[in-house]
Amino acid sequence: xxSISAGTGPTSHTFISQRLRLHYVDYGNPGAPLVVLVHxxxxxxxxxxxxxxxxxxRYHVIAPDLRGHxxxxxxxxxxxxxxxxxxxxxxxxxxxxxxxxxxxxxSLGGAVCLHYTGLYPDSVVRLCAxxxxxxPPEMIKERPVEERWHEWIESAQSLATRKxxxxxxxxxxxxxxxxxxxxxxxxxxxxxTVHGAMQLENGNYAWKFDNYVRNWPPNRYDRESVQRLxxxxxxxxxxVRGRESxxxxxxxxxxxxxxxxxxxxxxxxxxxxxHHDQFDEFVSHLVPFLEGSD
Length: 294
Fold this sequence. Notes:
This protein has helices at about 50-55, 80-95, 110-120, 145-160, 170-180, 185-195, 225-230, 275, 280-290, and strands at about 10-15, 20-25, 35-40, 60-65, 100-105, 125-130, 195-200, 205, 235-240, 260-265. It is α/β, with parallel strands linked by helices. It is globular and about 55 Å long.
């Protein structure tokens, strides 16, 4: 079982990327090998607390809030694009003055880590991507540029008038969190809500993430470029998938073949949030993988 509150909590810090003040938490143990945990879309750094508790005695564990998420600044006028997220990770590692890192990323965070590792293969010792290979191939449809651009513009205009949902209490928000992922324990749903919600001036609660992160940029998905970056990854890679997830098997759909040195783990009774849904089994794979030879 996960131990969300094991040990003392992390300390909060900030760094600058593209003039945005971005937030990260530090679980201590400076001087030990660095592990950076990168969350997924509409999530936040503290979703990694239980994982960090399993790693902090051996590693210096850091978890950032991506721009527009958690306690990081919202990217007013930004597109919340993959290049921007990868830049932010690059800036964080420069801020930490670290030369070598182990990366663990979930969903969007996994994609960010895969892109970064392809760009800077000498900087990454090991990489675990939890459902981080992007949409399944069958979900990617080639559409005319004008269709993509119209959709993006109309979505941006709609978000300008969209009022974020409010909750009268943290309990109500936690119940919504649990509805979104029934695999979550009540304790984890509460933990994710406490750190993922903010109290408004009227006393209600809303999620911290910027609603504009919902509007993905209008550029076509450049499959060839993404696969090229995957092929440049030089370190061992652990790909993790929940068997009940919407994400497809990267071995069966051919995406994994673009990574030279990988292991693949599929975890039963888990959906997209594998590290929450089957915590013990997830860390039973993650810990020995991270401890492998450099």
